[in-house]
Amino acid sequence: MAFSRRSILGAMLACAQLAAAAPNPVAAAHPMITPPPSLDRRALERLEGRDLDFGGYLNSVFSSLGSGVSSFVASGVPQFFNDLPTGTAVESSLGISSSDLDASPTQALNVPPYANWTDQGWNLRIHGNIYKQPNISQDKLNDLANVFLIDTDITDLPEDQQNQARNLTSEIFVVQQDNEQVIIDIINDATVDPNTDSGAISAAGGTQNITMPFNTTEQGDFDSFVVLQNTTGPNGGHLLPGNETDRLQVLDLWVRGAETTGNATAYLVPPTGITIISDIDDILRVTKIYDPKEGLLNSFARPFTPWENMPEIYANWSKSIQNLHFHYLTTTPEQVTKNYMDFIYKTYPLGSFDTRPLNFSDVSATLSIRKFLLQKIFQTFPQRKFILVGDTSNSDIMSDYPEMVKDFPNQVQCIFLRNTSSTDSSDLFPYNTKGFNGIPQNQYMFFHNPNDLTNLDIVNGNCFNSSIVQNVTFQLQGPYGLGSAAGALAPPSWWKSVSWGLGLTLLVAAMST
């Protein structure tokens, strides 16, 4: 049986409209002492909103272009940072002994946390990872780094990129320490500028030592909410109660025994105000996750580069909006997030952070963790408004962000999504806009460039720049003939075969259901 182009496109659109039933809305939680989170990924919701996995098909298409594409990349996840070795796998791959490892100092990843105000006081979520970093020779680091590089040898890179690749490789090949007691030293000497950091102030009290209620997991993780004692500061000051201030308060905290690596800044966030939850890859920095070779070089070797003038947009929001809390949420695994945090704090406003725990590794778990972390912060701050920022290359963002509107009514102020396919011809992946059906247009916007976000009254919920054509069809969309939201680029000459091949794939999938 022969199919016409019209019938194929019709099947594509029909297939794109197939959707699972929307989850029942849940009421926003009241502020409370949150129990220690379970890191068992089986307890999380499974992947939602991705009707079809294009990874297998696109892998065969793009292999002819010299790029290996997996379902991770098709979902907007950097495949080169998945299935990283941990624990004994690192020891065996490096051929190191336990005695060699015992001689290495203990180190810590201390992820910048947030705190909410409860009836018991400030409730601080402290999370991170305890590990040891083996001593690895440069030759061995070169060999290990080359495993991650596509069509490139580390010795062919400029010297500064070689050094960064080796540093990141050494961060990957660490041995996590399980069943370790973690003690946190908190001091009130954080440096902030109230004129630029959304009015944040250094806490006047709160210096204390906290023993985490649970030892580290098998993967070396620690993650618990703890209640802060309102201790007196050096000048007789105290932590301001959250129900008596609209200012963010900032504290420094250190992991005892890992002072050279385990420092972070904590943000005590008042119950009301606005929090910006921002993805990082391809919205704050140039990553090109959708182009595996370039994405790997941009993440592994090249210096992190801001995406256009996005730092100016965030800086303006930070200066002009009081009590604005920035929270950076990336699904990049813990081992490689130090570069992310260093880049953010040198380029964007200060803020808390979330990363992917080590035991979330396959596609489904990786795409579930974002929603899990979004739900956690929404439930922790039920009276705050949230502005969600991301891009269309992440399928979890395309499903999770609109679901937050439905699951947490009146908490999502704005959704801003960069349409990567409208400005970057190397983004060939479709995305699904069905989740935005029924959401008022002034609550979300697909945009091309950072300047599209200027002159918006986001404090009062005016999130739409009417000069930016949206073209949202509430179904499968994408570059080159699939109907790109906020416009599209002209297709390259070879795209015709890809788009029709994708149409046939969708048609077969539709006929088999």
TrEMBL record:
Keywords: Signal. GO terms for molecular function: phosphatidate phosphatase activity. InterPro entries: APP1_cat, Mg2+_PAP, TAT_signal. Residues 274-419 form the Phosphatidate phosphatase APP1 catalytic domain. Residues 1-21 form the signal peptide. The keyword Acetylation does not apply. GO terms for cellular component: actin cortical patch. Pfam families: APP1_cat (PF09949). It comes from the Eukaryota. The keyword Chloroplast does not apply. This is Phosphatidate phosphatase APP1 catalytic domain-containing protein.
